[in-house]
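Worked example 2:
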Amino acid sequence: MKIDSDEWNEEEFERLTGMKHVHLPKLEEYGFITWNRDTDEVSKGPNFEEIRPLPEMFAAHEDELPDGWL
């Protein structure tokens, strides 16, 4: 999640801020991911198998999704 400040724009900054302060904590709370806040590393959590079909579906249909979704 670390990016050089010369490489981001306001939209990207908002997206990353939302991910770090909203989405990642919720995914961690549900056990879908584990998140090391010190290193900003994310890995599969103990409940990841419950949602595995969703990221697999996104990946399988990436060409059908709006730009910027993945």
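The chain has three helices and two strands. The radius of gyration is 14 Å.
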